[in-house]
Specification:
It is a single chain. It is built from three helices and 15 strands. The chain is of the alpha+beta class. The protein starts with a helix and ends in an 11-residue tail after the last strand.
């Protein structure tokens, strides 16, 4: 996708979110309540010391996605999503701990769509001296970030909530993911070859182009370390910034989907090489 297309899509989505549905969460009263609750939560956090999960968290890219979450046992939580056009979403409420997970009860309707919404259930996840909060329905996504070398990140920007200030803290070993996801963390990258490519299905975008979803099969599977939901990047041909997300995984093969736009100059081909490690990142960084 071109830089211009990405920027245009971002602007359209941002305008729709910021200007389309101005409900009570964007009122001066809701802003005042959020600020009051946030100050109470931050005061509670300061008095807790090294708490298991309480903290002031951030995820985002510094542009259209700047998500903040202040959360503590008694004070509850305050969530806001800011971008270049202002506040895209705001919510607050209470938090309960159920089976080690954080269940959020929202004051306003919570819709995870576009530039708004927050996962209603978060998994506290320690990694060395760091603390993350990961959506309970996207732990495999966090594992992908680790397998691709995006985590542990060296600055504040990232795809998952990290307690502010922890980006400079030390990590050792693996993150403390739930037991059922531990085999999704790869000690070494997995490589594969595209064995078959099916006819794509078409999905509309928010603008004038369409997305094409190509089903494909690859020659690596569970015995090589792959699991459903994992992602692999194209390494050959060179300068092909595409990835495959896996669905069905068998012992020696797997099936997945590659998404392109309908004007892409190079659709996927049999023989393309893939890896769970991005081709632009040096292997010695693993």
């Amino acid at each position: 996708m071109t830089t211009f297309r990405c920027a245009s899509l971002l602007a359209l989505v941002a305008i729709a979110v910021a200007g389309g549905d101005r409900d009570e969460r964007f009122s001066a009263g809701a802003q005042a309540v959020a600020e009051s609750l946030r100050q109470g939560i931050l005061t509670e956090i300061a008095g807790l010391g090294e708490h298991e999960w309480a903290g002031n968290y951030y995820e985002g890219d510094g542009m259209g996605e700047n998500v903040s979450l202040a959360i503590a046992p008694r004070g509850g939580f305050v969530f806001e999503w800011h971008g270049c056009l202002g506040c895209y979403d705001r919510n607050y409420g209470t938090v309960d701990v159920v089976d080690g997970q954080l269940r959020l009860a929202f004051t306003f309707e919570n819709e995870r769509k576009g530039f708004k919404g927050l996962a209603p259930t978060l998994v506290p996840m320690a990694w060395g001296e760091r603390q993350y909060l990961v959506p309970a329905d996207d732990v495999i996504g966090f594992c992908n970030e680790v397998n691709q070398g995006n985590e542990p990140r060296a600055n504040a920007h990232g795809r998952y909530l990290l307690r502010q200030g922890d980006e400079g803290r030390h990590v050792t070993g693996w993150p403390d993911v739930p037991a059922e996801y531990r085999d999704c963390l790869l000690a070494q990258p997995v490589t594969a070859t595209v064995m078959a490519v099916g006819e794509p299905s078409t999905r509309p975008s928010l603008t004038t182009f369409n997305f094409l979803e190509f089903p494909m099969s690859i020659d690596a599977g569970r015995q090589q370390g792959l699991r459903p939901g994992m992602e692999l990047y194209v390494t050959e041909p060179a300068r092909t910034v595409e990835r495959v997300r896996l669905g069905t995984v068998e012992d020696q093969r797997a099936e997945g989907v590659m998404i392109q736009t309908d004007d892409h100059p190079r659709p996927p081909q049999v023989g393309w090489k893939l890896s769970t490690w991005p081709p632009w990142r040096p292997l010695d960084a693993k």
